[in-house]
Amino acid sequence: MEPERSKTPLVSQPWLIDLLAAKGFVRSSPNTFVNGKVTIRIRGTRFLADPGTGEQPWLKDFKGVRPDIISIYLQQILSMPQFRLNVKG
């Protein structure tokens, strides 16, 4: 039997909000988090991370992906050079 999935939208999951806050992000609108330069937009299960440098944004659909795996992905993305210079931690 598959584990029960949360009915709370991904953008409102406390673990995600805490992860982004630890990286210096604040919510600027219901689906958007910013840290002054990097912008992360979350619509449903789709993430768009824009480094704010003119470089290509990163896009991923996390439909069906467990929260622990999403956390690993996001930490890896925010460690990429185009994001690392603009993200706390």
Q: What integer is the average pLDDT?
A: 88
Gap from first CA to last CA: 38 Å
> Using DSSP, what is the number of strands?
5
Give the helix tally.
3
**Spans where pLDDT lies below 50 across 5 or more residues:** none
How much beta, percentage-wise?
A: 15-25%
The portion of residues assigned to helices is 25-40%
Class inferred from helices and paired strands: alpha+beta
* Strand order across the largest sheet: 1-2-3-4-5
Strand and helix layout:
Elements: H1 14-22, E1 26-29, E2 32-34, E3 39-43, E4 46-50, E5 58-61, H2 67-77, H3 81-84
Antiparallel strand pairs: 1-2, 2-3, 3-4, 4-5
What does this structure look like?
With 89 residues, the chain is of the alpha+beta class. The protein has one domain. It has 3 helices and 5 strands; from the N terminus they run H-E-E-E-E-E-H-H. The chain has helices spanning 14-22, 67-77, 81-84; strands at residues 26-29, 32-34, 39-43, 46-50, 58-61. A 5-stranded antiparallel β-sheet has the order 1-2-3-4-5, with helices on one face. The longest helix has 11 residues, at 67-77. The protein is globular, with a radius of gyration of 13 Å. The N and C termini lie far apart (38 Å). The mean pLDDT is 88.
